[in-house]
Amino acid sequence: MSRVRNLSEVLQYICVVAFVFVLSACSEGIDEILDTDILPEEELPDPPVTPTPPAQPDAELEEIKNLFVGAYGCQDNTALSLVNYDSDASLSSSSCDGNVVVEGTNPSQLYAMSQGVHAYLDLVADPLKQNEAVVFANAGAVLYIDLDANSAERLTSFSGTVCRVIPSIRYEAEVDSVTGDETWNELHDSFVYVEVVDSADSARACQNNQDFRRYFKVALNYDVNAIDEETCIGELDGKSSAANCKTRLLPNVSQARALSYPIRAYVDDATNPGSKVQVYGYIGAGLGSGARELVLWNSAGDQVWTAPQDRNLESFSNVLGVEGAYSQLFAVEELEDNFYVAQLGRDIFVFEGSELFELSDSNDVFKDRSYQLEEDSGNVTKMQIAFDNDDFLVFDQGKFFYSDYKASYSAPVLSKNYSYDFLLARSLRNIEDPYMFSQFDLNDCSYNADPVACADANDVGGFAWQVTNDCTLALNCSFPNDLNDYCVTDAERTPTTPQSELCTPSNYEDLNELDEVANDLSFAAFLPYYKDYMRSFEFKMYDDSLLLNLRLTERDALVVYYYKQPLTAPATVRERLLLGRRLVQSISRPVVQDSGIYFSTNVQGATVSNVCYKGLMEVMCNVQEPLEGAADECTRFDLDAGTCREGRFLFESRALFCSDTEILSGDCKDSNQINQTTLQIESASQDAKWVPSLSIDATNGVQSTMHVLISDDQPRSTARPNDSYSKDEGILGNPQLYSVASQRTLSSAQGQLLSSVESVAARLVLRENEGAYAVNAEEFVSSTRQRQQDEIYVNQANDQNQKVIGRTIAH
């Protein structure tokens, strides 16, 4: 049986809150100023340097068998622990008696954690994609766990708060000895970048985007007291293969380098004229005052352009949708075939990697944008995009824009073929589902400011109902048009025009006049219900179309949108309604797999009466009282005003699958949940939820599979507490985990989970039949809304499906 060392990776990509890991054995002296031997790589101001105490010796750990993250004892949702779970021993969890921690022995606590940052590192290519290390921080200290050696050490400390630990990605080529073709393994480098913030308010240092930030490259073999530093010199700060190599180098790096993104490109093959080879490097931009630069490095760390581009980015009150707190935004997403999309502030650029590497002068880089996001009350959000191997779409404040980003692309003649083995993190990000349903988010249209328009928007499948439309003033839609004259273009310049007035991509405002409109994204559609009648909205690619998950005021709907159809085509041609016409239900994020789509739904059922809520609080029902009620009661006056509600709904949970054929034929619809019940995998007397899965083994590599949790649709039995049941908003109690043979066919039982599941938060990752997944157990409704989120261990060989540890998260 393989040793599953890093099961908590399934949550690393979905948690909004980052966690600080505190190495309890090294806690003394952790707040001291310990900066030393900082060698500047870029010109940034350095803090005063003070002597460093002797290095903290490596701490030998108990054998790390299954690593999880959660609340240990009396910890709250920000003070968590890293724990070690032995699946061969009996569960003995910690608990909290008042404010007194009752220790548990399995899982055992390795380290306490509070409000922090951490990163798992996959350093070595292997079929199981195991992580070899964890780097984490507490206050200003950076600590490192070697998962292979079962050891831990404090690498260094800084005079500030470490707000981010940022892995660097590298590519390692495996060359076929016969053909010369290369497989590029995507891995983490043997160092991390750390972001250090100096702030008078240390409790909020990481949340204040105005505080000054410093960046350092910390090698995993860093040792301030290394004796034989020469062993590592010239090996990029610790990449030497020499035994016991240690380095004293702790370079101060620019923000652009620390926050850079990897870029691959096809460039001319110097040894084979007319052919191309693949290279990679990194592109980064400085954020904040005094950091105006856009830089491209090659894989060796050398700058590609003769000089960085001076780049003045737009500043915002809040930058949303990214990790970290900044007043400016630079982000890069990979498309296909070495194409990328970059976002600089509100400006979006689609480009091929070779475009950057073929330049020696940076003056014209990112000069002609593809799209500019609309203004949003002084804020900016990371771009919402969808793409496949040729189409690219952007969603912006109710509008879709589209392009065929490879319309003029000609595949290069390559000297060799390239294939890729990417980090597991890519698959985890693509299928996570952070959405958590609550009926308290639903609102009756009769209390809306425009009840008629709200009712029309929620009349799913009605005669006049359509999701996409043209952008017209009648629909309160328009396109921004900035007519300001910011600069002088080449066509406008005269012999007396000052150089300072000429348009340049260095100034973001000048892009309005540098933009070649013919290259811009094309408008595709406007969603008239988006602004006023949607609680939230998601979309993803599906076979030359988009799956639109509409969470409307009163209900959800799932729609296929054929974005290549012109707006002049009938709505019935542009759109295909799947779910939402006849049933009030919440719909999870669909998983496109196995020639169809999987999705879980919660279908509204019976009403529970004589219970009242004000906001999120359950209050006394006094519905005969005509006057306005107090904070802890719901009166007839309050009901009429819509400030409280009487009654709540029960929901049934269903695991549905629609094949591509059923979608095209119109058989993927609500009525096939009601009468024939042909879409769900469970029986009529059961409730179920899908558990998307990744199965990894040495023979087949990474395979996308599917599991399902099933409970009997019956009340909880006090006489038989281990029997399965269902309750409230589609919560499964004590469900059985099953593997799925194909689409809607169950395979084998994988063990019973003696706990509750309201939704599946993170995909099940199985390495040789052993792994973990994460669930949201249930919602706690009080003055604030919270969720219990649990991490579950699975061993298919002995049918283990065990809750190990949990945490409370804000929602």
As residue ranges, the low-confidence spans are 13-57, 235-240
Q: Supply the helix-strand structural class.
A: mainly beta
Average predicted confidence as pLDDT: 87
Number of strands: 50
DSSP strand content: 35-45%
Shape: globular
User: Compute the gyration radius: what is it?
Assistant: 28 Å
| Most strands sheet | 8 strands, mixed
Q: In order across it, which strands form the biggest sheet?
A: 45-44-41-40-47-48-49-50
Distance between the termini: 37 Å
Query: Helicity, in percent?
Result: under 10%
Count of individual helical segments: 11
Description:
This protein has 811 residues and is mainly beta. The strands form 12 sheets. It has an 8-stranded mixed beta sheet with strand order 45-44-41-40-47-48-49-50, covered by helices on one side. Strands 34, 35, 36, 37, 38 and 39 form a 6-stranded mixed beta sheet that branches. A hairpin with a 4-residue loop joins strand 49 and strand 50 (800-810). The relative contact order is 0.10. Residues 13-57 and 235-240 have low confidence and may be disordered.
